[in-house]
Amino acid sequence: MKKYKRLSNFELLRILSMFMILIHHFAYHGTFNGQQFDMHRASVQVVYNYLLIIGKAGVVAFVLIGAYFLSDKKFNFNRPVNLMIQTIFYSFVIYYVVITWFPNYIEPIKNVDMWLPFPLPSNYWFVISYI
Q: Inter-axis angle of helices 42-70 and 8-29, to 10 degrees?
């Protein structure tokens, strides 16, 4: 078995990108409503937009670091196919558990994406980015 040298600079960048993703989630799912513009809160809106951009950059960095470490491996067509099959399987399982046990907690189905819980870019953006 090969002994790999530890690349602390990549590990530090991966930790930083996770923190950037956390900042994005804080901004996006926080209490500030960025959808409605108010002139009195324009400076807060600017900070909110920067936090969203930082999070998107963190996702890109995190995926690229993972791709860098996967680049040494030989391509195996089964790996993305298995990922898609797992995503489809768990999507259906989670979807049917939620509509069976918690029907009052979900919104009515308004679009086609909820009828077809397949890896579409709108629902499974991280899986599509990874593939």
A: 140
